[in-house]
Design goal:
The protein is of the alpha+beta class. 29% of the residues lie in helices and 19% in strands. It is globular, with a radius of gyration of 17 Å. The structure holds adenosine monophosphate and zinc ion (ZN).
Length: 134
């Protein structure tokens, strides 16, 4: 499979490995938002969070928690963002699911997405659409 993260898992592409076990790999993002920006991935290839089994996802999330704690303690930061892009439109470039852990530093200047407000009646319309698709 022509997947850059599968190649990192197999060792064909080098990476700065933060953590590895039977199911999960964590490594430094090559283009960090802040130093210590880490990606946590399942070793099995899944394109989207919708495809991964509960068991596999829980293995990954367990390590997200572990790395988050290590980032805080090791880098002496007070917080970090956990983010996953799902789908090209959402900014997912690599189609092998991954959680981004981005250490945050006071006044680092990063801005998350801008937020808006629902117009009259709009929240209920949206709610109906989502709930009808379960
Ligand atoms: P996304 O846009 O959510 O798909 O994120 C993909 C991330 O993978 C980006 O932040 C890239 O900087 C990172 N990335 C791409 N290639 C590599 C690589 N060889 N080693 C480490 N990180 C990489
Ligand atoms: Zn892959």
């Amino acid at each position: 499979m022509d997947c850059i993260f599968c190649k990192i898992i197999s060792g064909n592409i080098p990476s700065y490995k933060v953590y590895e076990d039977e199911n999960v790999l964590a490594f430094l993002d090559i283009n960090p938002v802040n130093a210590g920006h880490t990606l946590v991935i399942p070793k099995k290839h899944f394109a989207s969070i919708e495809n991964i089994s509960q068991e596999d996802l829980s293995e990954v999330i367990k390590i997200v928690k572990k790395i988050g704690k290590a980032i805080k303690r090791g880098l002496k930061v007070q917080g970090y963002n956990v983010m996953m892009n799902n789908g090209f439109v959402a900014g997912q470039i690599v189609p092998h699911i991954h959680f981004h852990l981005v250490p945050r530093i006071v006044n680092d200047g990063l801005k998350l997405w801008p937020q808006g407000k629902y117009g009259e009646g709009k929240a209920n319309v949206i709610l109906k659409k989502i709930k009808s698709a379960f």
